[in-house]
Design a protein that fits this description.
single chain, mainly alpha, 3 helices
Length: 63
């Protein structure tokens, strides 16, 4: 028996990509990259937090 999904990750991914496409439409690639890096450095989103933790661990491992 098939369970009803309460969350569709493919649908979420598509929605996020569409949002970003609208947000970054017409911007030069470097501006898009700069905005994404600013968001990663300041956001409390779980992915941004994970990214910063990886950078911290990477810099500690390099010492």
């Amino acid at each position: 028996m098939k369970k009803d999904k309460t969350f569709d990750c493919v649908e979420m991914k598509q929605a996020i990509q569409e949002k970003h496409a609208r947000e970054f439409a017409g911007l030069p690639d470097q501006e898009v990259a700069d905005r994404m890096m600013r968001e990663l450095k300041t956001s409390n989103d779980p992915v941004a937090v994970w990214y910063r933790e990886c950078l911290t661990q990477e810099s500690l491992a390099a010492k």
